[in-house]
Design goal:
Structural class: alpha+beta
Oligomer: single chain
Distance between the termini: 91 Å
Helix content: 10-25%
Number of domains: 3
Number of strands: 25
CATH architecture of the largest domain: Beta Barrel
């Protein structure tokens, strides 16, 4: 079969075109590798944040309370003979508050002492006769038993007489009288109340969220409803929560040498916790890790992003206080939501050493 001239020309053209592309592919230069340049990196703003001294301030509502407040009670029955203590008077330990009529108690004591004296004479005589061979050892033992019994009776009578005097158990203020002269009291009936002046306590309740921040020895300042402002030291932190309120008891000990404080006054006190190092950072710099942990994104010396978990301590006017960071850190304060750990970034702002700058 004869091929026409146009078909021959078309075949030659296609063949030359194929040869051209084959030769171009064989001898063309290799493509350039794609290299990351500074211009292709993401830019963030970072500040160097230095640690600072931080104290938590925990506000607690409470009331004043005497360290010791005792209702002094009768230990023997009888009629009140006198009440020499004056309400509001400062008493010393052992001062008389109430006195019960002695009645026959003095006579009973005298009788017991006389019986003890006779028993002692009998015992001494028995010992002498025993030494001379006129009294057995059993007789001496019987005389000794009689002497011991009479001594016990005399001591009992003396204690019964002493119980007629109801005295102050410690130095304090006589705050309340329950009886008057002529009243009859039984065992356990109240005579009066005495309050120790110093130290005084301010007692309050702290929530579960705040209790871990408080330690014995922390400083506290209380403002009373009566207008006084007083300072003291935390002396007790509860170890178990109140089952009904889930709060923990704390006691602020206040010196009260002049006796100016009163028991039961409403108080608002602030506890300044132990000083520690912490970082003050912008609220906006907080971020969440992939597993939901709270933290911040910081930069290493090579401007590589890393995630640093933190624990929130408290809030301030300029930001939030956190711990968990070590020393001075380069904190990303703008653009942290667009970068990931391990990524190298550029820092747009100049690095200046600050303490919570840019907040």
């Amino acid at each position: 079969m004869t091929v026409s001239q146009p078909v021959k020309l078309a075949g030659i053209f296609v063949t030359l075109l194929v040869i051209y592309f084959l030769l171009r592919g064989m001898f063309a230069p290799a493509p350039e590798a794609i290299i990351e340049t500074p211009e292709s990196r993401f830019t963030v703003i970072a500040e160097i944040i230095e640690p600072q001294s931080w104290r938590a301030e925990i506000s607690v509502r409470g009331h004043t309370e005497a360290e010791r407040k005792v209702i002094v009670r009768a230990q023997t029955p009888g009629v009140i003979a006198e009440t020499p203590a004056i309400l509001g008077e400062k008493l010393k330990e052992g001062d008389l508050i109430c006195r019960i009529a002695t009645d026959a108690r003095a006579a009973q004591l005298a009788e017991a002492r006389a019986a003890m004296a006779k028993a002692r004479l009998d015992y001494n005589a028995a010992v002498k006769l025993n030494q001379e061979g006129f009294r057995s050892n059993t007789g001496v033992a019987a005389a000794k038993a009689a002497l011991d019994l009479s001594a016990a009776n005399a001591e009992r009578a003396g204690l019964e007489l002493e119980k007629t005097k109801i005295s102050a158990p410690f130095d304090g203020i006589f705050d309340r009288r329950f009886v008057e002269t002529g009243d009859y009291v039984g065992i356990g009936d109240p005579c009066g109340t005495i309050i120790q002046q110093s130290p005084f306590l301010v007692i309050g309740a702290v929530s579960e969220k705040e209790i871990a921040k408080i330690s014995k020895g922390d400083h506290g300042v209380a403002r009373l409803a009566t207008g006084e402002t007083i300072e003291g030291i935390i002396r007790f932190v509860g170890a178990a929560a109140d089952p009904s309120t889930r709060t923990f008891k704390v006691e602020l000990e206040i010196p009260n040498p002049d006796g100016a404080l009163r028991d039961g006054v409403t108080a608002q006190f602030t506890i300044h916790t132990t000083e520690r190092a912490a970082h003050l950072i912008p609220r906006s710099s907080l971020a969440l890790s992939e597993d939901g942990a709270i933290g911040v994104r910081t930069l290493t010396s090579g401007d590589v992003v890393e995630f640093s978990p933190v624990h929130l301590l408290g809030e301030g006017v300029a930001g939030v206080w956190v711990d968990g960071l070590s020393g001075a850190v380069k904190l990303i304060i703008r653009g942290q939501e667009y970068v990931k750990p391990g990524q190298t970034v550029d820092v747009d702002a100049p690095e200046t050493t600050t303490a919570g700058a840019g907040l």
